[in-house]
Please model this.
Amino acid sequence: MHSSVIDRHLQSFVESCRRHGLKITPQRVAVYRALLESDQHPTADAMFQTVKLTYPHISFDTVNRTLLTFAEIGLVDVVEVFGGPKRFDPDTGDHHHLHCVACGRIIDFIHEGYNGLDVPDAIASKFKVISKRVVLKGLCDKCTGGRP
Ligand SMILES: [Zn+2]
Ligand SMILES: [Zn+2]
Model:
């Protein structure tokens, strides 16, 4: 994420913590910032490895619990994964994902056409849809050498 976008997110992070009575600790800020700076949709373990560099005494458990708390208050999304550990997404806005089946990268993309997809009657008549995300599976540019 661009640094101005990160600043904007950090601001709403502070507001969101206050609203939910969550103390704003340096560790929580570090976990959130590291998540914003990563475009990898990282796992709790990957976040732990990153945050540990600045806070050598932080435990995996703290990082993991912090991420789950963020998800609970809607500050981050838990990414749809097909087996394997949970992955986290700091972008809770409308966007879609391409999952690379070879290396596991998840690439964000925006597409108005997908945002506007109709919900089938069979679903709309029974269920309440609160968000829509299109998930594509394939190979990323690194895995194809840039030639799809
Ligand atoms: Zn790949
Ligand atoms: Zn995403």
Q: What stands out?
A: The longest helix spans residues 3-19. Residues 2 and 8 are 10 Å apart (CA to CA). The mean pLDDT is 94. Strands lie at 77-78, 88-89, 96-100, 106-109, 135-138.
